[in-house]
Write a structure and sequence with these properties.
Strand content: 5-15%
Helix content: 40-55%
Distance between the termini: 20 Å
Radius of gyration: 16 Å
Order of helices and strands: EHHHEHHEHEH
Number of domains: 1
Number of helices: 7
Number of strands: 4
Largest sheet: 4 strands, parallel
Strand order of the largest sheet: 2-1-3-4
Shape: globular
CATH topology: Rossmann fold
Structural class: alpha/beta
CATH class: Alpha Beta
């Protein structure tokens, strides 16, 4: 099984591309942050807990998704990943580099991360995404920098229609629809 990360700016179309991939029969995971925020809002709480609690909860959920990924599948696509959650944990509670690298080594993903860049014409806020487009641009830049620091190659997915974006990813992985 090859675990593949779909990452990038908030509101750049990751969830939509993942839905397209799921529609083609590939197992996918959902974004843990949106789930946590939606659950908190449904309980009448603020969208996010304090940064450390938020990061730790995302890591817990993303670790679980990594662990329970379908074993029989050739490819699995992750909406973000435990690698990103570790970045958040490290940001709010810095780890020694050796400890951080040890934790990162527990998660084996394909060495290329598919990054969807900020795309202002499709960016929308909603109940779970309440940040500005400028914030999305900063997050994207930080994610690209983080993944590169972790040793991943970044393959930027062009701003195309959803079908073309999914096809771009599959072609990069040498997977054909035919």
């Amino acid at each position: 099984m090859r675990r593949n990360i779909i990452s990038g700016a908030p509101g750049a179309g990751k969830t939509t591309v993942l839905a397209e991939l799921a529609g083609r029969g590939f197992p996918t995971t959902s974004d843990s942050a949106r789930a946590v925020i939606a659950e908190r809002i449904a309980r009448g709480k603020t969208p996010r807990p304090d940064p450390k609690a938020f990061a730790l909860e995302l890591l817990r959920r993303d670790d679980e998704k990594y662990t329970v990924a379908p074993q029989g599948a050739q490819l699995v696509f992750f909406d973000r990943s435990a690698v990103e959650s570790l970045a958040m944990v490290h940001e709010v509670a810095p780890l020694l580099e050796a400890a951080l690298k040890e934790k990162l080594a527990a998660y084996r993903f394909h060495r290329t991360v598919f990054a969807l860049p900020p795309w202002e014409s499709i960016y929308q806020t909603d109940a779970e995404r309440d940040h500005s487009f400028a914030h999305a641009e900063r997050v994207h830049s930080q994610l690209v920098k983080w993944y590169r620091w972790c040793g991943y190659a970044i393959n930027e997915v062009p701003r195309l229609g959803v079908v073309q974006r999914a096809e771009f990813i599959l072609q990069a992985l040498s997977v054909s629809d035919a």
